[in-house]
Model the fold of this input.
Amino acid sequence: MRLTDKFGRAITDLRVSITDRCNYKCVYCRTGNEGAQYADLPMADYLRMVRVLVSMGIEKVRITGGEPLLRKGVVDFVRELSLLRTVDGNSLDTAITTNGHLLADLAQPLKDAGLKRVTVSMDAVDPAKFARITRVENGYQNVTAGIRAARRAGLDPVKVNCVLLRGFNEDQIVEFGKFARDEGVVVRFIEFMPLEEDRVWSPEIVVPLDEILQRMSQFMPLKEIAHASSETARRYIFEDGIGEIGIIAPVSHPFCGHCSRIRITSDGKIRTCLFSQVDHDLYGVMKRGSDADMAAYIEKVVQQKEARHHIGEPDFQKPSRSMVHIGG
Ligand code: SAM
Done:
């Protein structure tokens, strides 16, 4: 069976959040205080949900959070995932999105457990600025050590995600271009979306795709290369062939028409869009019923997947949860 929504979009990508706790307090994501938290589920429960979804056509699973590497059992979870097969009999494409703080020690065990790829979030290549954004001292050393350990372990490619905020880190664009070239990682800039706990988003804070390209081209011209239609990032290489960057532009260039994703939150709810107003309680169905009941529920829920987000439109409503509680 293949999950398809009512607009004909095949649902092949799953993001599963295994905790909404985080050891960073990035200014554009969390409040400085301890916010509300949802319960983490036993890892076996996430595994059962993923297994059912994979039997319905999921091909890629990205583990996220909160901060997924805080969760004990993450390596075993990856090992279990890597035993699953897609409906076509292929191995799953598995990835983790992490802030990288604990990655230096975990990169090799994760690779050995079968993880294919890792994305590390990092919003400045200047240590002082990094500390101001994350509100954590000495994180920069840990994260760069984590990135290097991931490369040594053969997690390939290592991607680095940077959310740009006007007046805060747009001076890092060119620096990140150099970082991509020096470190052999793919740096991807993400437009800031209205998903933060503190409700500070405004269109003026977003640094849009065109501006990122223009600033980077002043450092060195870029050439666009092909990207898969379901891929969120537009891809570019530098003119001399050294270094790749990507731009994820959900605000200025939405890609909802090609969206192939659904999410499971750390408390076992399905979200069909980052900007959904509702959660769907897969965990509740799982506790009461069989795998077949779960599959029937998932099929019904996927039909409710939103056509698109409405960022920047008069009828836009903030989603019912912030990014850290959804799983980015
Ligand atoms: N803790 C992990 C990490 O830092 O990658 C995983 C969870 S984090 C919520 C996932 C990603 O969402 C990070 O790359 C983060 O920068 C991004 N993010 C958080 N809030 C965002 C927002 N309002 N707009 C765009 N990206 C956001």
